[in-house]
Automatic annotation (TrEMBL):
SMART domains: A1pp (SM00506). CDD domains: Macro_OAADPr_deacetylase (cd02908). NCBIfam families: PRK00431.1-6 (NF001664). Residues 1-174 form the Macro domain. This is Macro domain-containing protein.
């Protein structure tokens, strides 16, 4: 039986099979959680990013791809590109949904049983956290309820305010 937990933590500290990175399409690191993951993971993460997305290429928004986790306690990093809220317009919800779905699918292909997500797109990319939390928890509960791997799912928020929002979204879904 699977599980979903919503926590307030630094995702780089989690000992899970896969942590998800809210990356950008060039996959060369950046600010926010992306910067934290590259700092903690070390040069091996960037080196593997260069292999999976060569110079001049890009990972499309809504897609996901796995790399080594370098020095992180996780086994691998699944990089996904969230929508820039202001630029994505009406496509934003479907693209954000795709980030969660594709990350789960890539982790499953890699044999992962546990996975942790940050709050994709709600930082620099400007997605309102209320709306983003409902989409995230909708995908994650459907995945776990279907009995699919990775079956141990952590929503890793950064700060108590975000944790409370995602927890509420989860409870709203559970109580219908
Ligand atoms: P995006 O560009 O997709 O908006 P950001 O990294 O700017 O990505 O923000 C996504 C979320 O990640 C924000 O809620 C931010 O507070 C959070 N975040 C930043 N650092 C960490 C970290 N070390 N662990 C978990 N979440 C983090």
């Amino acid at each position: 039986m699977g599980s979903i937990e919503v926590i307030d933590a630094d995702i780089t500290t989690l000992r899970v099979d896969a942590i998800v990175n809210a990356a950008n399409e060039r996959l060369r690191g950046g600010g926010g959680v992306d910067g934290a993951i590259h700092r903690a993971g070390g040069p091996a993460v960037l080196e593997d990013c260069r292999r999976v997305v060569p110079d001049g290429a890009r990972l499309p928004t809504g897609e996901a791809i796995a790399t080594t986790a370098g020095d992180l306690p996780a086994r691998l990093v699944v990089h996904t590109v969230g929508p820039v809220y202001a630029a994505a317009g009406d496509d934003a919800p479907a693209l954000l949904r795709s980030c969660y779905e594709r990350s789960l699918a890539v982790a499953a292909e890699e044999g992962c049983r546990s996975i942790a997500f940050p709050s994709i797109s709600t930082g620099i990319y400007g997605y309102p956290v209320d709306d983003a939390s409902r989409i995230a928890m909708d995908v994650l509960t459907a995945h776990v309820d279907a009995g699919q791997e990775p079956s141990v799912v952590t929503m890793c928020c950064f700060g108590e305010d975000d944790r409370a929002v995602y927890q509420q979204a989860l409870e709203d879904l559970r109580t219908g």
